[in-house]
Every structure is written in C-alpha cells, then in structure tokens.
Amino acid sequence: MAKAGAAAAIDTEALRRKYAEERDKRLRADGAAQYVRLESGFAGLATDPYTQREERDRVTDHVTFAFIGGGFAGLVVGARLKEAGVTDYRIVEKGGDFGGTWYWNRYPGAQCDTASMIYMPLLEETGHMPSEKYAHAPEIRDHCSNIGRQYDLYDNALFHTQVTDLAWDEARQLWIVRTDRGDAFTAKYVGMGTGPLHVAKLPGLPGIELFEGKSFHTSRWDYGYTGGTPEGEPMTGLADKRLAVIGTGATAVQVVPNVARDAQELYVFQRTPSSVDERNNRPLERDWFDSVTGPGWQKAWQENFVANLGVGFPAEDLVDDGWTDLGKRIRAQVIDMPPEQRTPEGIMAAFEDADNQKMSEIRARAEQIVGGEAGEKLKAWYRQLCKRPCFHDEYLQAFTRPNTHLVDTDGKGVERITARGIVANGKEYEVDCIVYASGFEVGTGFTERAGYDVTGRGGRKLSEYWADGMRSFHGLHVNGFPNVFFVQQNQAAAFIANYPHNLVDHAETVACVVRHAEEKGHATVEPSAEAEQQWLDFLLTGPAARLGSTECTPGYYNNEGQGYGEQERFALGHPAGPLGYFGHIDQWRKAGTFSGLDFA
Ligand code: NDP
After folding, report:
1. Does residue 473 sit in helix, strand or coil?
2. Measured from the CB, is residue 219 less than 6 Å from ligand 1?
3. Diameter of the chain by CA atoms?
C-alpha cells in the first residue's frame, strides 16, 4: 500500500519489492567464504610498500602497559595513560609507524568520511586545526605521528611487529607478550585496539594468481608503479596504462576520481553500487575554528553528532552533513505525527519514509550527474544504512569522462582473472593493472582477525570463551582475563558512525581504572562473572533491529546476506544507543566505585 504524507510520491511496497529483488540477485551460497586473505600468497600484494623493515634486537623487558595496535586506539589510550602518570607504555604495531588504518590506506583520495572536527582525536590536546571539513589521509597520518611525539609514544614502540601469543602468568600476575620478532616481554596491563577493519581481503577469484600485469590492494598502494603521491601529485605512471578497479565500496568511491583523472583507460567493475550523496567538502577557516572551539569543545561536538543521528531532539546540529541529514528528516516526520501515532511502529515507519525519500534523491543524483545507462546502473537499491553510506563530490562525475567505463555485473561480480585481465559478463577486459578495492575481513572471530589467541586465568583461551559470541563487561573488560582492556566498539557504543568517539571514551575509562588500581596498589583488576552476565542480559533487552538485517543487500554489515553467526550474535550495543552507553559509563566513572570490577 502506498504511504500518504511526505512520501506520497514513493510507492513503499513497490520499493520494498525492488530492494528484495536486487538483494536476491546478490546472494551467494559461499557468503563470506568468497573472500581470501591478502596474505594468501600473491606476490607483492601483502608486503608493506611504505616503510623498510629494520632489524632489531629481541625485547625481553617489562612494561606497565602494553598496547597491541598503533592506530587511534593505541594512541588515545597512550595519551590518557601518560596523563595519568604511566610512563612506560609500549605500543606493538604490525605497520612501520603509527596510524593503523591511516598507515595502510594511502590510496589516492583517501579522506575521513565523518567530519574532521569529530573524527580526528585529541584535536583539543594537540591544538591542531583540521585543514578541511573532511581531512585527507596524509594530514590524518601526520596527526597520528604528532600525537605519538607529543605523548612520547615512539620511545617504547615496536613497529613491524606482530603479537603471536599473549599469556597470563598467574604466579607473577603479569602478561607475557610474544611476537613474530622473537620478543617475550612482560606487562602488568594489556590493551588491544586491533581495529575492526585491518585484515585486507581479496575476492577468491579463479585465476587471480595468473595475472601477469601489476596488481595490488588499495591498502597497499604502489606509488612506485603509479607515480604520484598520497598528497595528490598526478600519477604519471598511469598515463599509458589501462587500469581496473574491482569494487565500488567506500574505498573505491574515493579512489575512482583520482585514477580516472590519471589513467589512460579506467574500468570500474561493479557488483553492488554504493549510495553516493554529496560530500560538500571545504577548507576550514581559522576565524571560524576559533569561534566554535573552547575548553571541552570536541567532546561536545562528538556528542552532538551522535545525538543528531539518534531519536532525540537536539537543539542544534554542529556537524550538519549527510550523516545528520537522515536523523533530521526522521525527526521532522515524527514531529509532524499526531501523538497517538508516535509508537515504535510509527517511528519505524517514519524512518522508512525518510530513508525512501533520501535514497530516491541519491538515485536521482546518479541520473542527473551521469545519466544514460551508466547513471541507471549506479543507482543503489537498498536502504541507506544497509551499506556504509558514501559521500563524494567527484565520484559520479568521473563516469562522464570518456576514459572511464563502468562494467556493471548485475550483482554477479567479476567471474575470473586471466593472464591479461578480467572476465566479467562473459567478456575479457585486457588491463595493465588491477586495483583490488575489495575491503577488509569482518565477522570472523576476534582472535582469528587479531592473529593471536589470549590465554587467561587457568589456561582459558579467549577463542574458546568467545566461541559462542563475545562476552564482556562494558565492552572493555572480560572475566578471566585480568588487566586486559578491549578497546573496540562491540557491547559498548556499537554501530557508531564516528568510530573514534568510542575509542576516546574507552581511553578515558582505561586511564581511570588503571589510575585507581595503581593508586591503591592493586595487582589485578577484572570484572566478576556476574557483572559480565548482567551486562550481556542488559544489552539483550535492546531492540532487535540493528545493522546486519538479512533484508539488506549482502555485504560485511550482514555477513554477506547470511545474518550473524555464533561469533557475531552478541555484537550488540547499549539498548539506548551510543549516547546511552556514553551516559552510562560517564556516571559509572564518576561514581568512582567501579561496581562490577574486582580489584585485588
Ligand atoms: P567494502 O567491503 O565496502 O567494498 C568491497 C567492494 O568490493 C564492494 O563493492 C564489493 O561488492 C566488491 N567486490 C567484492 N568481490 C567482488 C567481485 N567478485 N566482483 C566485483 N566486485 C566485488 O570495502 P571498502 O574498502 O570499500 O570499505 C570498507 C569499509 O572501510 C567501509 O565500509 C568503511 O567503513 C571503511 N572506509 C572508511 C573510509 C573513511 O572513513 N574515509 C574510506 C573507505 C573505507 P559488493 O558490494 O557487491 O559486496
């Protein structure tokens, strides 16, 4: 039945049918097994093209705090712990420098996709003013280095080092950290911030090893081959090259305009179109920045952003972009509703109407900017949050260039790779270079992605403890694993669009707990089994609707259309959303009693 009101022009039922048809086209029996790891052995694809690995002596000392991962998580936890007086903090990082995702992702056009003002952590502490509303990768990477320098995090860091094993030594009440460089050092506390998207994946295409040209994953961009720089210098090496990009996700959306500019010919292989709304990026002005910042400004901005994405009614929208637009539309519809219709079902219907309008506008954008058959094929037929929403001012425009060809595969994807190129829709496209914009592993077990297991009290393995899904207290502490902090989003402010907000908040908690333990002279801190169970029970009272609906087009949000497996079924957030979590934790920290944690 067509809906009345603001969405009158949209036939909701017809749209639902269309979305279901498009989803069905993309469903595959092999689900997430269609992908293989970057490390699976293709020459050159898995190496670090950015930093020379240096030989060093093995490390066998002791530190108060070891953190695994040198991205935002390790940096912000380090900053807060240094402020709390922990001087010997060590980051162990598999890349050659700090940055995490921003170390690896140097592809042309990489930039943050939530606003710099809320995305770049510790802006207040470092005094950095982002140059653009959405800063580009080199600036974010520099920011990471600056945090490292400002808080002396380089001193103790181990780069190009992967943890292989983490074991609790009950007798000494310490963690033993072993690495692939032969290190075996001890730490009183361990933090883990290995990131949700750090294991690059490739489509497991037949013939992928046969290709005789150049190929690399977007997170291992080879500027030696393409020419140019991450800062945007033209990639002169591509001037006489036929280039293929496989994938049209958030990464490809940023890559395509740049390679379209520089390559002789560009073929973009599409399985599912992304929704690409306008980005409206612009430089930030010093006068404006000074006028909106003051003590506590960044936290206020981050909270305002979350509030604008939620169902509350914040008085202002500080970020004011494509992310907050959807929230504003839903609220506008709810405000227009007679009070008796403001039921959970009524609000869900308003959400669907607002989404349908938004997606119709985004589809119209593809038609207006690109037009023709390509414009039709670039239309995304699913609800906006089924996939990471994309925003870009030059992506769609790239398809109007004569050298840029969209190869839409109607949901089937690339068939195979040959020595000379790519086969799709039964046709071989000969190319010189293949760029795999094929994303990162999601939905596998934590220890599988992290690359090491954790052995806690009594020999309990984390992989076994979490075999039926994650269990934690506040998403940060786990029973049986004393003095460990999991700096990630599940069972905390899950599904937050601005991921670093969660990390900054966790960092505050880690510092608060460690400071308390150190001041009181405790050897261990650990959540009780009861507190952990109560937290899980509380999370399970939340709404069932969440990211990962199997009604969505397949992708990593919904385990390639197959829904959550055992590992992911407790990938929950606070029932009242991220703001509910932040509010809860703020109160918990302020109370100072640390209820749920046992100190000994
Ligand atoms: P995604 O997993 O989102 O995209 C992978 C792409 O590869 C999809 O378009 C997928 O198609 C396609 N693909 C896979 N196999 C085939 C095949 N056989 N044939 C054709 N196409 C294929 O990875 P991204 O790297 O783009 O993004 C991952 C996440 O990283 C984002 O969702 C976002 O969270 C984050 N990100 C953040 C950015 C930022 O903050 N600036 C920028 C970029 C990424 P299909 O959709 O059909 O599966």
Report:
1. strand
2. no
3. 71
Question: Cα angle at 121 between 115 and 125, to 5 degrees?
Answer: 125
Q: What is the pTM of this model?
A: 0.94
* CB 413, CB 275: distance < 8 Å: no
Is 38 touching ligand 1 by the criterion CB < 6 Å?
no
Question: Please, are residues 274 and 248 in contact by the beta-carbon 8 Å criterion?
Answer: yes
Residue 3 has pLDDT above 50, yes or no: no
574: Cβ below 6 Å to ligand 1? no
The rounded Å distance from CA 436 to ligand 1 centre is 10
Q: What is the DSSP letter of 343?
A: S
Contact 143, 290 (CB under 8 A): no
How far does the centroid of ligand 1 lie from the alpha carbon of residue 201, in Å? 10
CA distance 424 to 413: 7
Closest residue to atom 43 of ligand 1, CA basis: 251
Paired strand residues for 68: 92, 192
Q: For 117-160, how does the pLDDT look when each residue is reduced to its tens digit (9 = 90+)?
A: 999 999 999 999 999 999 999 999 999 999 999 999 999 999 99
Distance 440 CA to ligand 1 centre (A): 8
Instruction: Give the containing element (helix H, strand E) for 356.
Output: helix 344-369
> Which spans in 400-553 are helix H?
446-450, 462-465, 499-520, 529-539
Q: What three-state secondary structure class fits 202? A: strand
Among the listed residues 401, 455, 459, 413, the one whose alpha carbon sits nearest the alpha carbon of residue 437: 413
Token code pair at residue 229: 């720089």
At which residue do the structure tokens 């670039």 appear?
A: 378
Indicate if ligand 1 lies below 6 Å from the C-beta of 272.
yes
Phi-psi region of 470 (alpha: psi -120 to 50; beta: other; left: phi over 0): beta
Tell me the CA–centroid distance for residue 269 and ligand 1, in Å.
Answer: 12
Say if residues 587 and 578 touch (Cβ distance below 8 Å).
Answer: no
Indicate whether 47 pLDDT > 80. no
443 lines ligand 1 (CB under 6 A): no
pLDDT tens string 199-213? 888 898 999 989 999
Q: What is the pLDDT of residues 535-585, one digit of tens each?
A: 999 999 987 545 567 888 888 777 788 777 666 778 888 999 899 999 999
Distance of CA 555 from the midpoint of ligand 1 (Å): 8
CA-nearest residue for atom 48, ligand 1, is 555
- Can you tell me the distance from the alpha carbon of 227 to that of 230, in angstroms, rounded to the nearest whole number? 10
Q: With a cut of 80, say whether residue 400 has pLDDT above it.
A: yes
Q: Which of 537, 536, 579, 544 is closest to 564 using CA atoms?
A: 544
> Does the CB atom of residue 388 touch ligand 1 within 6 A?
yes
Instruction: Tell me which residue of 493, 454, 481 sits closest to 597, measured CA to CA.
Output: 481
Measured at the CA of 585, the angle between CA 579 and CA 587, to 5 degrees, comes to 105
The mean per-residue pLDDT over the stretch 457-477 comes to 95
Beta bridge partners of residue 277, listed in sequence order: 391
Nearest CA to 473 out of 581, 358, 548 is that of 581
